[in-house]
Write a structure and sequence with these properties.
107 residues, ABM_dom
Length: 107
Amino acid sequence: MNDTKDPYVTVLWEARAKAGREAEMKAFMTAAVTPSRNDPGNIDYEAHEVEGQPGTFIIYERWVNRGALDRHLSAPRMQELVPQLLELMEGSIEEGIRLLQPFRPAQ
């Protein structure tokens, strides 16, 4: 196995809604998906609810490079959404972020 040289960045972000706020958080995340998909450099942006765990959400996102991800995260729209999201979720946003490093079998 070897690391790829692809510059793309894959992010998994998991968050859990506060008790009683599950539907509200799902609606909030649903509204945020399309604008994020339209951000420059986005390859894929999909929101999921974990089967059998209502209120546990995972967003899978891919970006052409780290710069595109950073621009997405620092966009004014995202900065406005953060306080609203923190009201709906348990813990911090950072706790749920995982950056994935791709690897493939050696040729």
